Predict the 3D structure of the following.
Amino acid sequence: MAVIHDTIAAFELFQPASLEDALALRRKYGKVSWAFAGGLDSLDWFKDRIKRPEVVIDLSGVAEMKGIRESGEGVEIGALTTLTEIASNETIRSKYSLLSEAASQVATPQIRNQSTLGGNLSQDTRCWYYRGGWACYRAGGNICYADTPTSVNREHAIFEANRCVAVNPSDTAPALIVLDAQFVIHGPGGEREVSAEDYFITPATDIRRMTVLGPSDLLTAVRIPGTWSGARFYFEKVRDRQAWDFALVNVASAMKLSGNTIEDARIVVNAVGPRPLRLRDVERQLKGQTATEDVAEAAGELAILGARPLQHNAYKIPLMRNLVRRAIRTEA
Amino acid sequence: MSFFQWAQNPWGQEILVRISWDLFWLALFGGIAFVIGHLVWRSKHKEAPAAESSSPKAAALPERILRHPLGARFFHWSMSAAVFVLLVTGFFPVLGIQFDWVTIHWIAGLVLIGTVVYHIVHATFWQRLGNIWAGPSGMKELRQGLMNALGSAPPPPKPGKYPVEQQLFHHLVALASFGVILTGLLMMVRVENPLFARNPYLLQDSTWGWVYVLHGLSAVGLVTMVIAHVYFAVLPEKRWMTMSMIAGWISKKDFLAHHDPDRWVVTEEAKNP
């Protein structure tokens, strides 16, 4: 169980000044190392002494992983770029306002000044049984404490639960999936690109991870193509309070319209499952349709098909249905 | 090296969670070590050519003798496929190879159950159970065979349909299979599937720990057994036996070289493969 300590357990700290050095450290220490970016997620774990890495690699000195660069028709964002930078960057605001909107709704201004895009995408789930140090599936045990008749599971999954019912908490992840982003990962095999959608995994694939990142990997950058640049975007995050809170459900969408006809659409919902949920059926249904109230209503109903609520989170079903409906209606 | 993984439950009690994955590596390298050890021994001990049988039954034998009827072959290969899929889906994620394995795993488990049930019925009503049973005389022959391998005893007598090593291997595989099946069926109530209503609280957490441990021990046992089985199957001197699991029959020559016609009484049906 979690015991709050005054001090963090000892670890060896490395502060590489280049990506090459950071990758060498990841390769050398692998599983016993911890990649430390903004520290917002990491310090919680360390202070509760639930995660006790032997080696912490502080990435804050790696200049190659910072900044926003225009590249061809798209843009490349370093994984260490802060959410404040993303929310206020002119290029992002003009071409990909979906992402700046999502970044601006994370937590509080102070946290956004410190937290990074890579951290927001790769953060661990907020399930409090897991974060409280309970020996659940995700922590290496063989049980889910959040899925019992008396569990406090109001924030947990209604889709894709597989033994573990935790959800992905990121706000920027659904926006980047909508924007067709590619995540640049450096690992022992060199550089590789993974689509934003494939970056996130479910417990059926690996119950102890939320992303494809292996113990020696680093997410170094995010590349957004020009595909959806300037489309009509919608982002909405519903949370218990209007700041410093994770999403109960959020929705990100993009549409290309020709007059009032939807030529193409992307809709992704997060905090309803272990990974951001791309609503492909809804996207298919929307293509070629006129964006009307009826179409939005039907899309909302389609979006929630297959939802399986736990004891205390059935409210997420109408919430998700309404968010999808609003995304389409607002864009119309 | 550790044997088990432990965790603390909400009441502060240390409970078993599963086997340590060190045991997987032990089973894997144990199997490889056995193969290497046997190859070394084999290179130094050439098998003497078998003596011709003097049994009067030998003369009446046809050129081909049925060793594995179609039903037995069907069971063997379908079980092999199920076990292969189970091992891949069970252990590849442990090795860090990520894929959506849970559904494939329990479906393969159900296929394994189906094949085992079929085998029990088929073997009970259509085959002689005594052929596969390793009795006390088999143990004596095993001992004599081991002593012979060490050079301190004459070769054991030729076996009936199955040599004692195969009989014992069958019993070990059966034990491990029942282990994974019984525990696997219990574990199915913890995952979403169309057969059982999900109930992770069917058993106490400490009991679940034992279920996971027995499942793991049976599974890593199968790893070693599969390595040994495949190794013997590809050995040149055992190829006649492997081929019989494909074609069903063995030649009269192989029959007389490796079996005692008085102990494996060839039925009329087996004379017409």
